[in-house]
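Re: [ENG-882] Designed sequences occasionally contain unexpected residues at chain ends

Forwarding the minimal case from QA. Structure tokens:
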């Protein structure tokens, strides 16, 4: 299957939705299902071939060495499949919302841009797709969010765009230095040599790291995330946490570390320290929240710290755990954000004190929320445990002090997630409780959550097929 199909298909879907008027959601559902089918088939063919990378797709070349180059290894295909799956989940979860055609078009446009990020091997093309993700998410937050949505959308855009400027400057410096050294213009990731930068190499490296760190987001560049999550619609939070935050870790793995292997090794204490601090800081901030959505938003900062610790270990086990945790976080956090959205649709409340005794009123919601919470805190047998255990085991051999800091983050995760679950579903309802307005999940909502929870259980109970899928790509990264 041509790799171009994977990013063009949802883009065509976005255009179809924009032109479909009142029937846009049916077009969104059809194209989202087709996109998931295409991503699944491409991933299966790539895995069945036993190759570490799909055959590269080359297209036309333009001025200054810019060319159309795509390729996908198992890591790319896993993130593309996650994008397609969560996009379909968002469409299904939003089915009963009274929203215009632009809402559906934005989600498919976002899926197209995200897929392009994971496919591009020409760095100019990579940057174009990277920036293109900002536009639909800005509108998703700014037009269909809640409360102070315009402020949150502007803050999201300005923070992430500012980080991208540093990334672009670093890429331009790299390309120009390569041209001065060999007399050839190119943006091809495989052809560029950071050695041509000489003494400017550290500046370019940290420019890339800054651009990617904003997107992860790594403390102290995280302040845009809680506001964006709090004001975004539930489906927007799913795509933001489930896929967009993964772009930062992916950029480090795909661009910064291969281009600057020595500098990235020397930066391990700094990056590892920030990752460990983000893990603990995110968990402590989550403990202090009284808003369910903000609590889950801060938990994302902590969980991405686990992913980064595994990646920074430079070991096969740590990389496998970090890569798997990228997928795990998308599933568990996506499910939690969806359920907070279901609660908000029914009551227009998100505070911990606004509920109580929901287990007796909405038993299906209680089951799925409890299941996703346990997966999120790393209960053995569920997906979170496998990813966190492998990431921390890898970090233990390379960054032992920071790995123990990560273990503290695991404990803190239980300290904020379980009391929140207890307060909403089991504690007696207070005088200001809106639990009386809450009805249980309908069949459509249960089906969406069953799909997410089934994957959490599958990865936790039988992780080896997933790890075997990642193995060829991660072996290349270790080299």
């Amino acid at each position: 299957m041509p790799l171009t199909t994977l990013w063009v298909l949802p883009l065509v879907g976005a255009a179809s939705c924009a032109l479909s008027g009142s029937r846009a959601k049916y077009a969104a559902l059809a194209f989202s299902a087709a996109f998931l089918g295409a991503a699944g088939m491409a991933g299966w063919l790539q895995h069945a071939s036993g190759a570490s990378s799909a055959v590269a797709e080359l297209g036309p070349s333009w001025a200054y060495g810019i060319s159309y180059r795509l390729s996908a290894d198992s890591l790319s295909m896993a993130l593309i499949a996650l994008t397609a799956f969560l996009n379909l989940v968002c469409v299904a979860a939003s089915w009963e919302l009274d929203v215009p055609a632009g809402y559906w078009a934005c989600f498919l446009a976002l899926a197209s841009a995200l897929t392009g990020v994971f496919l591009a091997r020409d760095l100019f093309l990579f940057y174009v797709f990277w920036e293109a993700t900002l536009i639909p998410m800005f509108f998703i937050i700014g037009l269909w969010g809640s409360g102070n949505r315009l402020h949150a959308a502007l803050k999201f855009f300005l923070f992430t765009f500012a980080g991208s400027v540093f990334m672009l400057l670093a890429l331009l410096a790299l390309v120009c230095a390569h041209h001065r050294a060999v007399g050839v213009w190119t943006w091809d990731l495989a052809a560029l040599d950071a050695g041509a930068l000489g003494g400017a190499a550290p500046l370019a490296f940290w420019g890339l790291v800054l651009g990617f760190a904003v997107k992860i987001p790594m403390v102290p560049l995280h302040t845009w995330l809680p506001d964006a999550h709090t004001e975004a619609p539930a489906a927007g939070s799913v795509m933001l946490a489930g896929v967009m935050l993964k772009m930062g870790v992916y950029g480090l793995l795909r661009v910064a570390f291969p281009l600057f292997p020595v500098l990235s090794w020397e930066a391990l204490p700094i990056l590892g320290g920030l990752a460990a601090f983000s893990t603990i800081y995110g968990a402590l901030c989550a403990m202090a929240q009284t808003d369910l959505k903000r609590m889950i938003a801060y938990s994302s900062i902590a969980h991405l710290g686990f992913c980064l610790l595994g990646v920074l270990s430079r070991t096969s086990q740590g990389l496998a755990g970090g890569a798997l945790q990228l997928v795990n976080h998308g599933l568990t956090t996506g499910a939690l954000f969806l359920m907070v959205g279901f609660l908000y649709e029914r009551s227009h409340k998100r505070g911990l004190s606004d509920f109580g005794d929901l287990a007796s009123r909405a038993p299906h919601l209680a089951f799925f929320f409890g299941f996703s919470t346990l997966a999120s805190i790393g209960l053995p047998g569920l997906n979170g445990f496998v990813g966190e255990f492998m990431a921390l085991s890898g970090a233990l051999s390379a960054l032992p002090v920071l790995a123990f800091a990560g273990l503290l983050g695991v404990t803190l995760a239980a300290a904020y997630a379980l009391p929140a679950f207890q307060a909403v579903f089991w504690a007696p309802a207070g005088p200001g409780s809106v639990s009386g307005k809450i009805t249980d999940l309908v069949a459509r909502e249960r089906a969406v959550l069953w799909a997410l929870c089934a994957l959490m259980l599958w990865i936790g109970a039988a992780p080896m097929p997933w790890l075997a899928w990642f193995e060829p790509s991660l072996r290349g990264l270790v080299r």
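QA comment: On inspection the terminal residues look reasonable. The first strand starts at residue 57 and ends at 61. Proposing we downgrade this to a documentation issue.
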